[in-house]
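Q: Okay, next protein. This is Glycosyltransferase 61 catalytic domain-containing protein from Zingiber officinale. I've checked the sequence twice, so it should be correct. Can you predict the 3D structure?
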Amino acid sequence: MAKAKAASRGEQQRLRSALLGGCFLLSVILLVVYTCYVVSFSGLTFWRSNRAVPPVADAKEKITEDKVASTPQEDVRHQEEKLPSNPFCDYSNRRNDYCEMKGDIRIHGNSSSIFVAISSTNTTKLQESWKLKPHPRKGDSRAMARVTEMSVKTISSHNGPVCAVHNSVPAIIFSTGGYMGNFFHDFTDILIPIFTTSQQFNGEVQLLISEILPWWNEKYKKLIQPLTNYEIIDFNQDQTVRCYPHVIVGLKFHKEMSIDPYASPYGLSMVDFGRHARKSLALERDTTIKLGPAQDKKPRLLIVARKFTRRFANVDEIVRKVEEYGFEPVVAEAKYHDLAEFAQIVNSCDVMLGVHGAGITNLVFLPTNAVVIQVIPLGGLEGISWIDFGLGTISMKMHYLQYTISLEESTLTEQYARGDPVLSDQKEAYRKHGWAHMIELYFFRQGVNLDMARFGSTLLHALELLRQQ
């Protein structure tokens, strides 16, 4: 009898162990399925940066970052001295410094000065000053060397500069310096942040831009003009003292080529920026083609061609393979001097294929549900490729496929022996030759010769994604 009971207990323990093991296995399977659903990818390697954290975590971090560096006691003291609300600058964010103030604000652009006029009798608070460079590349000395430093000063309302122009609307001051002229940086550092910063005012805001150049303004005016109902002021050249009731200095940066809905006014997202881009440039298509029995049109696949760096070395072969899989190929090189013209081409396509680089930035003009295929060249660039374009693509409600080339697909095999660390051990190559040299090599001296047999599965995946819409 005792033996039977012991055997029964043993069977129960084995059953419980089996159930626990089954539950664990089911959890793993569900996690894998969920991950594949959220992010489609192909190629041998795919790496997510720990900087691409979930939205909830982002929201918690942003709450911490957005707190003004002052205690409740200090806030009370400021109110007692009749300072305008939020006169202090927030330096806590790792990517940008930011000031926001309300009251009697006087701006003299030519001297890079923003004056907060106060009527307090406490003279110890007068002539206080906070300095910042209003550009979201904080910590990058090379970029920030091209940005004018500005000062925010408290002054007596009786002794400050006299207003020459009185404005009833708010003002936003920022710099286009940094890496201005690089298509990716123009969007991620300026155009996306100014969109999120200005939307709360619904056009009733004036932009004062430092380091702005006529060609830059002309190139992006169709994207910027809808954000303001007023003349754009060249901050550095402006000798007029302009007065505003509300001034923001700087742009809050969220993520590379992306917007955090938890940290932006009214929950704005990259979907909203996509609508803004399409409307501003009069792009016709809001959604992609949906493949099915009743659809006889072929989906268009844009091959972003590059003449020199990270170019496709076998474009003709790619075109034939794309046609073989049922796409209509479109080969075009990005025309950065005519933004609207190339944006029209991009918007007419359902899939965009390109090697990692600024050309992928054109994804902002694609219709919703489009497929972006980013080809990752040799050099350990999977992580930065995902951060720069993967996250932004998904947040725009598009599909993202990341294809990492094999060694045989890199044109560097024509320049280096097979045993060289440049080909076989990128970490060792970076250590041996230095970061600057290897970036020059992997970014500017490398081409891609796509293996059509290997790449075919990615094209099939793109077709399937278009059928699922």
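A: Here is a summary of the prediction. The mean pLDDT is 83. Residues 2-38 form the longest helix (37 residues).
Q: Noted. On to the next one.
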